[in-house]
Amino acid sequence: MASRVQQIEPLWAALEPDRAKALPGLHACLWGRQHWSVAWIGKPTWFKLFIAAENDVSEALCMLCDDVDTSEDLQLTLAKFVCTAYRPKGIQFSSIPELRWHLFCKYMAESEKLPPTSGALKQHILRAYVQARVLGQAAAVPQQELFDRLENGYHRDSDDGQLQPTTTDVPPAPEAIVEMVRCQCKGNCSSNRCSCKSKNLPCTDLCLCNTQCESDANMH
Q1: Residue 50's closest CA among 61, 36, 66?
Q2: Which value, in Å, is the radius of gyration of the alpha carbons in the chain?
Q3: Interhelix angle for 118-136 vs 72-86, to 10°?
Q4: What distance in Å separates the CA atoms of residue 68 and residue 74, rounded to the nearest whole number?
Q5: Are 153 and 165 in contact (CB under 8 A)?
Q6: What angle in degrees, to the nearest 10, is found between the helix axes of 72-86 and 96-107?
Q7: pLDDT one-digit tens code per residue, 122-171
Q8: pLDDT tens digits for the chain (220 residues)?
Q9: Half-sphere exposure of 29 (CA within 13 A, CB side)
């Protein structure tokens, strides 16, 4: 049976010093106790993306271990890194909302195969910040007092008062998306056989109709 203990020293020695220092932040962000669901993206893939990432990604992950605020710039940098794991080849989206919309429209990707929303990622980074600080001072005696978890991705359950991770602070998608109709016409959407036209709705990016569509919202 293979050992689940990973010797970190050879890995640390093989990396550039600045990138090696980002490993605790990477672990807290992707593989810590409060990670989001990335079951279909394996650890080797994430690690390869980390090795190939720009220096600003390593710097942002290092900052998770430091006594600094999780700034908007840090969150945007980590969002760009997350996008590299989810976007199809040849697509250069670095914005979470744009990439989620593209994947939903073009591939009707299931929710678990979409990147986390901006709101969910923000809360996750706050929790990773707490965990990275815990990892960073594990050998320190005495340990410094950590920040208020209620301000860093957690809330108290209204029933039992226990700390629970805050999943997001914004809705995952506009309500209209859930109810939106889309057609799969192979013609020009001119008859009531088109599910959009039959409901007096224009075709949108969600539809699978072709360029000959006469009901395209972008044409009006």
Answers
A1: 61
A2: 22
A3: 110
A4: 10
A5: yes
A6: 20
A7: 888 888 888 887 776 665 545 555 667 777 777 788 778 787 877 777 76
A8: 455 666 777 777 788 888 888 888 888 888 665 555 554 677 888 889 999 999 999 999 988 877 667 788 999 999 999 999 888 888 888 888 888 888 877 776 566 678 888 888 888 888 888 888 777 666 554 555 566 777 777 778 877 878 787 777 776 666 555 455 678 888 888 887 887 777 667 787 778 787 778 877 554 4
A9: 29
Contact 64, 25 (CB under 8 A): yes
d(CA 126, CA 32): 12
Burial class from Cβ neighbours inside 10 Å (0-12, 13-18, 19+) for residue 215 reads buried
Residue 195: DSSP 8-state? T
Tokens at 195, concatenated: 């599910």
Which two three-digit tokens encode residue 191?
A: 């008859």
Every domain of the chain and the residues it spans: 12-169, 180-220
Instruction: Please give the Cα distance from 116 to 96 (Å, whole number).
Output: 8
Peptide bond into 174 cis (omega under 30): no
Alpha carbon distance 119, 100 (integer Å): 13
